[in-house]
Structures are given as C-alpha cells and as structure tokens.
Amino acid sequence: LTSPTKTKTALACPGLYHIPQMGDGGLCRVRLEQGRLTPTQLHQLACFAQTYGNGTIELTSRANIQLRGIAPDRAQSLVLALEKAGLAPKMPAGDGVRNIMVNPTAGFDKQGDDRIIILAQELSECLQTNPRYQTLSPKFSIFLDGGESCAFINHIHDIWLSLYEGGRSFAFGLASRPPLVDEIGKPIPVILGKVPFWGAKRLIFTFIELLLASRDKNEKIERMKHWLAYQDPAMIFGALEQKLPFVKREKDFRRPRPKLDAHLGCHRAKQDGHFYLGIQSPLGVLTPEMAHFIADSAAFVEHLCLTPWQGIIFPNIPLAQAENLKILLKKVGFITDGNQALARIVCCAGAPGCRSAKSDVRMDALKLAERLEDKNFPFLHLTGCVKSCASNEARAITFVATAPGLYDIFMADGATAESFGRLLARSVTIKQAADRLSNF
Ligand code: SF4
Q1: 283 Cα to the center of ligand 1, angstroms
Q2: Mutate-to-test residue for ligand 1 from 355, 389, 402, highest number of ligand atoms within 8 A of CB
Q3: Are the C-beta atoms of 377 and 339 separated by less than 8 Å?
Q4: Do 70 and 27 touch, CB atoms closer than 8 A?
Q5: Which of 9, 30, 238, 338 has its CA 20 to 30 A from that of 260?
Q6: Is 350 in the pocket of ligand 1 (CB under 6 A)?
Q7: Do 282 and 353 form a contact (C-beta atoms < 8 A)?
Q8: pLDDT in tens, 355-412
Q9: Rounded distance between C-alpha atoms, residue 390 and residue 60, angstroms
Q10: DSSP letter at 402?
Q11: Measuring CA to CA, which residue among 129, 135, 151, 140 is closest to residue 204?
Q12: Structure pTM?
C-alpha cells in the first residue's frame, strides 16, 4: 500500500494508505475530521484493532487514532474496512492533508464560536479534493482556535488563526502558536496579522499558494518554517497585503490563557443545562475492551471528541449523567481529574513499538506515575529519543531515554523553545527521578 501523495515526507508518514512497518508491525494512522468520531465508529475501530492488528489503539496528540501491529497481509483488508466505516478521506490522495485542528470543545464550549466547525469542514474538503493542495506535506497543519476555554495551545502549527474582537476577526501567525496574555517577554510569532472572519479561507489558501509557489522553485520548502528560513517575513506580509487588502498587521494580539484541566472532568457546556465530560486513557492507549466500554458508555451521544491530551470528551450531556459516567470511568481506570499523576505525564510509543526508542517509555512512565501519585510535580514528558514525537514544544520537565530504564532530564527554561531546556541530570533511573521530583 503506497500513498498516492508525492513528497518524501509523505512516504515517511503513516496514514490510511501508507502503513509503514514499525518494531511491532504496521502502523495505521486514522486522521479524524475535527477529532470526532461516532460511538459506532469507535466500536468498529476496536474490532479492527483486534482483527487486523495487535489490539493496541493509540490516541495521538493531534486528536487522531493509530492502530498498531498490522500484519502486512491484512493491511489491504483493514483499509477497506476503514473506508466502509466512513473513516477514509474524501479522496485517497487527500488523506495526508486532513490536518486541520480545532479545540476539542469547539461548537459546545461556553466561550467558543459555533462557526469554527463549519469553517474547518469547508477548509478540509477543499484541501482533500484539490490535486495541488494534496501535495502539501502530511505534517502541514492548520489550527483554528475559536477562543474556547478548553484549548490546547502548545502545538506549533504551520498556520494558526485565533478568533477575537467578539468573533469579528482572527489573529494569525505562521510556524508558531497563538501567544498568551501572560507570556510577557517571550518572542512573538513571526508574521502576526489580523483578518476578518469572512476572509479566513482566502487567507489560508493564499498562504498555501505562496508556499507551494516557493516549493516549486526549491523543493526543500515543504513547511512554513522552511519558507520563513528562506524568505524575509516582511516580504511575505507585503505579498499578502497586495493580494488581500483586507489583511492588517497586528502586533498586540494575546490570547486569554485556557482554563486549567478543562479537558478532564465535568464542565458546563454552551447549551443551557448541558455539560461535557472529559477523560484520558492512561498514556493515550486503549485496548479493544476499553474502546468498546467507552463506545457503550457514549451510546446516547452523537459523536465523541478526541483531545490533544490523548483523551476523549463526551459532549452535551445532563450534569447527573456526566457525574455518574465520571465515577464509572474512573473506577475502571480512566483519568478524570487533573490531580491524578497520569494526567500530568505524556510519552511517546517507545520500545518495542518504535525501533528508534532507547527504552520502553510507556512502562517507565507507568512506574514513574505510581511513585508520584499524590505528589505535587510539574508536567512531564518522557521520550524514547530526541525526536520528541509526543510533544513538539518543551514541557516543564522532559525525560530523554539514553538506555533501557535510564534518562537524561531537562527543565524548560523558556529561552530555548526548540530544545528541551537546561540539563538537570544525566542517566538517572526512574526511582532516582521520582525521588528528585517528589521534592520539586
Ligand atoms: S520520539 Fe523517538 S522513540 Fe519515541 S516514538 Fe518518536 S521516534 Fe520513536
């Protein structure tokens, strides 16, 4: 199975039509439109994981799903099953460009704007069905931030737009993320401008056209960060202003800080008398049984929303139902509160699934969480190698595996957004790390 998309990056990136072999078999990434799927689709994915793979279902930090351990002779049948379940792109060549992220509560968040979902759907359809746009890197991502209080702002996106001025305008930036109101002194994103809501689609497609025109001249320019490395941002903005006179410069935009732990537990939704419930699966992994359990518990909702915290939100339910569900799901091992240790730990797949991993990161993360339960410690990221697949921005503390069970530990210092920060300790065991963090 080979993706019809073209770039070298496309061939390296897992998808529906490209299932690369990893340490534990084939890896199939199912990109979900706006991170949403129906309870029936979750049941189907649980069955597919068991029938075609090794049973491991991963929730990714981009609100997608991955099935692992796919046997090469079953890949074709898996793809047909996914297509039948309504989880395929509009066209096979459009699979890699289904990378438009919205906040997980978009459409029902008390602070959000309902128009974001429609905008995301329209953009996604255009990207998937336009042959030129289909050639974008499958890592190319767009973030539409509707100002929701449940928002994941840490990811770096090729293009981001953040709604403000009472929903009239979007602030936007390239190869960065929306700056937050209390991030005084941090470098502001390159190219910060504003566009009326009605001009957002034209802005995005103009940026993409300009990027692709640059790529035509230099094939190394696949992403906005590459383009910015070659082109003076002032010239990019000038070219943009000529094409779109309604775009203005905006240096002062700062987004309100999202509500802490709004992705976990019960929260009031936009619609009167309705709430939503957010949960996480430990380290973003579901077994088929866990997936069936969630799908059964969600039989009364239209769809579930995956979160970039590798969790799931049940939208628009009455409070009593949300609270009962929370108790039930906590009892069977899901994370429902921000004060649980696993709510503050993120990690990549690690060994044996990933051949680059120096350690079984998930096992180590579970041991660490056990030792840190009930302790006050900062947000942790464990990574099997420096590639840092689980987080593209430095977290408060990062563990980088150096050998089985051994890690170098870094602390983010703000000044080095591209690195993990300041080295705190070399080659420490999980026990040594836990002792150190307990006294943090
Ligand atoms: S960060 Fe490294 S070890 Fe972890 S999944 Fe990515 S490539 Fe593999």
Answers
A1: 14
A2: 389
A3: no
A4: yes
A5: 30
A6: yes
A7: no
A8: 999 999 999 999 999 999 999 999 999 999 999 988 877 889 999 999 999 999 999 8
A9: 8
A10: E
A11: 140
A12: 0.93
Please give the single-letter amino acid code of residue 360.
Answer: D
Q: Is 387 in the pocket of ligand 1 (CB under 6 A)?
A: yes
Q: What CA dihedral angle connects 52, 58, 62 and 64, to 10 degrees?
A: 30
CB 306 within 8 A of CB 65: yes
69 pLDDT more than 80: yes
Q: Among candidates 154, 134, 150, 145, which has minimal Cα distance to 172? A: 145
> Quick one: pLDDT band at residue 415, thresholds 50, 70, 90?
low
Mean pLDDT score across all residues of the chain? 93
Assigned token pair, 391 = 């987080």
Non-local CB neighbours of 73 within 8 Å, separated by 6+ positions: none
One-letter amino acid at 175 equals A
Helix (H, G, I), strand (E, B) or coil at 79: helix
Q: Indicate the residue type of 268.
A: R
- Ligand 1 atom at minimum distance from 401 CA: 3
CA-390 nearest atom, ligand 1: 1
pLDDT at 12 over 80: no
Task: Put the strands of the sheet holding 397-403 in their side by side order.
Answer: 345-347, 380-383, 397-403, 406-411, 422-428
